[in-house]
Write a structure and sequence with these properties.
seven-stranded antiparallel beta sheet; 25% strand; two-stranded antiparallel ribbon
Protein backbone atom coordinates (compact mmCIF):
# COMPACT_ATOMS: atom_id res chain seq x y z
CA UNK A 1 0.00 0.00 0.00
CA UNK A 2 1.36 3.41 -0.94
CA UNK A 3 1.94 5.94 1.83
CA UNK A 4 0.08 9.21 1.66
CA UNK A 5 2.26 12.06 0.38
CA UNK A 6 3.60 14.59 2.87
CA UNK A 7 4.14 18.28 2.15
CA UNK A 8 6.63 20.23 4.28
CA UNK A 9 8.20 23.65 3.85
CA UNK A 10 11.57 24.11 5.44
CA UNK A 11 13.86 27.06 5.55
CA UNK A 12 17.20 26.66 3.86
CA UNK A 13 18.92 25.59 7.09
CA UNK A 14 16.36 23.05 8.19
CA UNK A 15 14.55 25.72 10.16
CA UNK A 16 11.42 23.66 9.84
CA UNK A 17 8.16 25.47 9.50
CA UNK A 18 4.65 24.73 8.37
CA UNK A 19 4.71 23.87 4.71
CA UNK A 20 3.57 22.14 1.59
CA UNK A 21 5.20 18.94 0.29
CA UNK A 22 4.32 16.21 -2.23
CA UNK A 23 5.75 12.79 -3.03
CA UNK A 24 8.39 12.19 -5.68
CA UNK A 25 5.88 10.22 -7.60
CA UNK A 26 3.27 12.99 -7.57
CA UNK A 27 4.47 16.53 -6.74
CA UNK A 28 1.19 17.91 -8.03
CA UNK A 29 -0.54 16.29 -5.06
CA UNK A 30 1.11 18.74 -2.67
CA UNK A 31 -1.24 20.94 -0.73
CA UNK A 32 -0.61 24.23 0.96
CA UNK A 33 -1.24 22.65 4.34
CA UNK A 34 0.20 19.17 4.15
CA UNK A 35 3.54 17.26 3.27
CA UNK A 36 5.93 17.02 -0.11
CA UNK A 37 7.62 15.46 -3.30
CA UNK A 38 10.85 13.84 -4.69
CA UNK A 39 12.84 12.54 -7.78
CA UNK A 40 16.22 12.59 -9.90
CA UNK A 41 17.81 14.75 -13.09
CA UNK A 42 20.96 17.29 -15.65
CA UNK A 43 23.97 19.75 -16.31
CA UNK A 44 25.21 22.92 -14.57
CA UNK A 45 28.27 23.95 -16.59
CA UNK A 46 27.09 26.85 -18.70
CA UNK A 47 30.53 28.02 -19.78
CA UNK A 48 30.22 26.61 -23.30
CA UNK A 49 27.73 28.28 -25.62
CA UNK A 50 26.52 24.87 -26.79
CA UNK A 51 25.76 23.57 -23.29
CA UNK A 52 22.02 23.56 -22.73
CA UNK A 53 20.78 25.11 -19.49
CA UNK A 54 20.26 22.65 -16.61
CA UNK A 55 16.59 23.59 -16.49
CA UNK A 56 14.71 24.46 -19.64
CA UNK A 57 12.55 27.59 -19.73
CA UNK A 58 9.50 25.30 -19.59
CA UNK A 59 10.81 23.41 -16.53
CA UNK A 60 11.74 26.64 -14.77
CA UNK A 61 8.28 28.06 -15.43
CA UNK A 62 6.68 24.91 -13.97
CA UNK A 63 8.87 25.14 -10.86
CA UNK A 64 8.12 28.83 -10.42
CA UNK A 65 4.38 28.22 -10.84
CA UNK A 66 4.62 25.40 -8.26
CA UNK A 67 6.56 27.73 -5.95
CA UNK A 68 3.97 30.50 -6.40
CA UNK A 69 1.15 28.09 -5.56
CA UNK A 70 2.75 26.07 -2.74
CA UNK A 71 5.72 28.10 -1.48
CA UNK A 72 5.99 30.29 1.59
CA UNK A 73 8.12 33.30 2.41
CA UNK A 74 10.73 32.10 4.90
CA UNK A 75 13.53 33.85 6.74
CA UNK A 76 16.83 31.97 6.42
CA UNK A 77 18.48 34.25 8.94
CA UNK A 78 21.29 36.75 8.93
CA UNK A 79 24.12 34.19 8.98
CA UNK A 80 22.97 32.26 5.92
CA UNK A 81 21.95 35.46 4.16
CA UNK A 82 25.47 36.81 4.61
CA UNK A 83 27.11 33.53 3.55
CA UNK A 84 25.01 33.44 0.38
CA UNK A 85 25.64 37.16 -0.21
CA UNK A 86 21.92 37.95 -0.10
CA UNK A 87 20.44 41.29 0.96
CA UNK A 88 19.14 41.61 4.50
CA UNK A 89 16.24 43.71 5.70
CA UNK A 90 16.76 46.49 8.26
CA UNK A 91 15.90 43.97 10.99
CA UNK A 92 18.58 41.53 9.71
CA UNK A 93 16.21 39.09 8.03
CA UNK A 94 16.75 37.33 4.73
CA UNK A 95 13.36 36.34 3.38
CA UNK A 96 12.45 34.70 0.09
CA UNK A 97 9.79 32.31 -1.18
CA UNK A 98 10.71 28.63 -0.81
CA UNK A 99 9.20 25.22 -1.31
CA UNK A 100 10.59 21.97 0.06
CA UNK A 101 10.04 18.41 -1.07
CA UNK A 102 10.84 15.38 1.05
CA UNK A 103 11.97 12.23 -0.71
CA UNK A 104 9.83 9.42 0.72
CA UNK A 105 12.59 6.85 0.22
CA UNK A 106 15.81 8.64 1.23
CA UNK A 107 14.06 11.14 3.53
CA UNK A 108 16.29 13.86 2.07
CA UNK A 109 14.66 17.29 1.93
CA UNK A 110 15.21 19.37 -1.20
CA UNK A 111 14.48 23.11 -1.10
CA UNK A 112 13.98 25.49 -4.03
CA UNK A 113 13.76 29.23 -3.60
CA UNK A 114 13.43 32.09 -6.05
CA UNK A 115 15.38 35.24 -5.26
CA UNK A 116 14.32 38.81 -6.01
CA UNK A 117 17.26 39.26 -8.42
CA UNK A 118 16.05 36.34 -10.58
CA UNK A 119 18.56 33.94 -9.09
CA UNK A 120 17.75 30.73 -7.27
CA UNK A 121 18.62 29.01 -4.04
CA UNK A 122 18.77 25.23 -3.71
CA UNK A 123 19.31 23.30 -0.50
CA UNK A 124 19.69 19.66 0.44
CA UNK A 125 19.02 18.63 4.01
CA UNK A 126 20.06 15.14 5.05
CA UNK A 127 17.83 13.07 7.32
CA UNK A 128 20.71 11.96 9.53
CA UNK A 129 21.03 13.20 13.13
CA UNK A 130 23.77 15.64 12.10
CA UNK A 131 21.30 17.65 10.00
CA UNK A 132 23.90 18.05 7.28
CA UNK A 133 22.77 20.77 4.88
CA UNK A 134 24.18 21.98 1.57
CA UNK A 135 22.95 25.33 0.25
CA UNK A 136 23.71 26.79 -3.18
CA UNK A 137 22.92 30.23 -4.56
CA UNK A 138 22.84 30.39 -8.37
CA UNK A 139 22.24 33.31 -10.69
CA UNK A 140 19.59 33.25 -13.41
CA UNK A 141 22.10 31.60 -15.78
CA UNK A 142 22.74 28.75 -13.27
CA UNK A 143 26.19 30.03 -12.30
CA UNK A 144 27.14 29.41 -8.66
CA UNK A 145 27.36 32.70 -6.78
CA UNK A 146 27.84 31.35 -3.25
CA UNK A 147 27.42 28.17 -1.22
CA UNK A 148 27.58 26.99 2.36
CA UNK A 149 27.29 23.69 4.23
CA UNK A 150 26.51 22.76 7.82
CA UNK A 151 27.01 19.61 9.88
CA UNK A 152 25.75 19.52 13.46
CA UNK A 153 24.79 23.19 12.96
CA UNK A 154 28.46 24.09 12.40
CA UNK A 155 29.67 25.44 9.09
CA UNK A 156 31.48 22.76 7.08
CA UNK A 157 33.08 22.33 3.67
CA UNK A 158 31.60 21.51 0.28
CA UNK A 159 34.33 19.66 -1.61
CA UNK A 160 32.72 19.96 -5.04
CA UNK A 161 30.03 22.67 -5.10
CA UNK A 162 29.62 22.40 -8.88
CA UNK A 163 28.73 18.72 -8.59
CA UNK A 164 26.35 19.34 -5.69
CA UNK A 165 24.56 22.17 -7.48
CA UNK A 166 24.31 20.08 -10.64
CA UNK A 167 22.77 17.21 -8.69
CA UNK A 168 20.12 19.54 -7.29
CA UNK A 169 19.38 20.99 -10.71
CA UNK A 170 18.91 17.46 -12.03
CA UNK A 171 16.58 16.67 -9.13
CA UNK A 172 14.45 19.78 -9.69
CA UNK A 173 14.33 19.23 -13.47
CA UNK A 174 12.83 15.80 -12.81
CA UNK A 175 10.33 17.33 -10.38
CA UNK A 176 9.37 19.91 -13.01
CA UNK A 177 8.83 17.13 -15.55
CA UNK A 178 6.27 15.60 -13.15
CA UNK A 179 4.32 18.82 -12.64
Amino acid sequence: MRRAPHLFLFTVLALLASAAVATATDPASASATGPAANTSITSVNNTAATTPPPLSDKQLKKLNDFLAAKGKDKDVGEFIGNKLELPLTADKKCVFKQVALKDDVSKIIHVYGLLSDGGMCFAVIAPDPTGTSYIYRLDSKFKIIAFVAFTNHVESEIKDPEKGAKTELVYWAAVADQL
